[in-house]
């Protein structure tokens, strides 16, 4: 069985779904920009630090979409780990929760 870069299973957090969906990088190690654009249905991504090792990769222009869909699950995860963000900002659109080594 091939070794992966990290034992963490990345998940797609979609505002249209209450359940995170497991996703994997095409090469088995780290996501490339082209596949992130496809998974997140966007043209620009941003990285939001959740913990020392976990990140959220988000649609950087999600707030400018019409309609813009608040991602309650991604916002909750972010706020749980980064309390300073509570009441200040939220995440809109799709997001991928993954280990920071899974995005190079």
TrEMBL record:
Biased composition (Low complexity): 15-26
Domain (DUF3846) ranges: 19-100
Spans annotated as Disordered: 1-26
Entries under InterPro entries matching the protein: DUF3846
Protein name per UniProt: DUF3846 domain-containing protein
